[in-house]
Amino acid sequence: MYGLIGKMTLAPGQRALVVSTLLDGTQAMPGCLSYIVAEDPSDADAIWVTEVWVSQADHQASLALPAVQAAIAKARPHITGFAERFETTPLGGYGLAAAGRSG
Questions:
Q1: What was the pLDDT predicted at 16?
Q2: Which residues are within 8 A (CB) of 4 and not within 5 positions of it... i.e. 6 or more apart?
Q3: pTM value?
Q4: Are 59 and 31 in contact (CB under 8 A)?
Q5: Phi then psi dihedrals of residue 69, to 5 deg
Q6: CB of 80 within 8 A of CB of 10?
Q7: How is 26-70 classified by DSSP, letter by letter?
Q8: What is the CATH T-level fold of the domain 2-91, as seen in this structure?
Q9: For the segment 57-73, what is each residue's pLDDT rounded down to a tens digit?
Q10: N or C of the chain: less Cβ packing under 10 Å?
């Protein structure tokens, strides 16, 4: 498995728009076991995205999907930066096993 955890910084007041855009554009991504968008409680203009994929290749392929491309294009003007980014190798956990069995 392949995992990513990343923090995005956003233009002031644009968090709700970016969150909605990312969630709407990431509904059907082959190989995606988990895609979570979360507000940063200590920064009103930041979000965290946590992803789990079957493989790094599946993640890379998702970036070419029309819905993902549209979400990126819509969100990009409101993203001011990418702060922390971590690649991981997920081993399992609550919810992940169920997602893996259904996908």
A1: 96
A2: 49, 50, 51, 53, 59, 85, 86, 87, 88
A3: 0.85
A4: yes
A5: -60, -40
A6: yes
A7: TS--TTEEEEEEEE-TT-TTEEEEEEEES-HHHHHHHTTSHHHHH
A8: Alpha-Beta Plaits (3.30.70)
A9: 999 999 999 999 999 99
A10: C
